[in-house]
Amino acid sequence: MGCSSSLSESPLGSPRAREANRILRRNERLRARRDARVDRERKKRIKMKKNAMVTRAQLRIEAGFHVDARDEYGHTMLIKAARFDNLALAELMVRKKATVDLRDTKGITALMWAARWGNLSIVRFLVEQGNARVSTNDTDESHGPTALMFAAKEGQIEVVRYLVQARASVNTRTIAEGTTAVLMAAGSNRVEVLDFLLGDKAQASLQPDHEGTTPLIAASKRY
């Protein structure tokens, strides 16, 4: 009898515990609904901001501004579209004959910005509709990081896969540092990207940069 009474009054089965669990589940539901509402509001604000960017660009063009007009950072409206993942704005600017491969004050193009932030829809559009330069040879040297290098450094695996499919070479090096997409991925500990690039004939990229840094050394510097 004593044993049976003890089990019936166990903490997990007590009225107090059941009430606590009920409150916990209710709070979880409320939190989930709140998070969903916040997410919807965030997406709505982003959509409104993107629509405003398109409207502003249309008004500027109608007012006589050049489609390649730049701000103090050298950003054109197309570059801004790439940075903020605004496909509608990118489509508008390409229709208006914007120069796709223009560089900002840091030497970064619209394609590079889109690759850096993982904006795959913009990357695809710029390559397939805007004819952005992406194809490079294994022996190519670049004055700065390529779109593939930016994507590799930031771990944007879907963009990396697409750019390689679009014939961007994993072995292209920068002239100044001699760095490659593999070195950048290793230096940022982007394991998934590194595995993919090394499986795509990245033999030349295993060589060190101009300072003697190999992918293994670059990866070890993370720790």
From TrEMBL:
SMART domains: ANK (SM00248). It comes from the Eukaryota. Keywords: ANK repeat, Repeat. ANK repeats lie at residues 106-138, 143-175. The keyword Iron does not apply. Pfam families: Ank_2 (PF12796). InterPro entries: Ankyrin_rpt (IPR002110), Ankyrin_rpt-contain_sf (IPR036770), Dendritic_Spine_Reg/Scaffold (IPR050889). This is Uncharacterized protein. The keyword Zinc-finger does not apply.
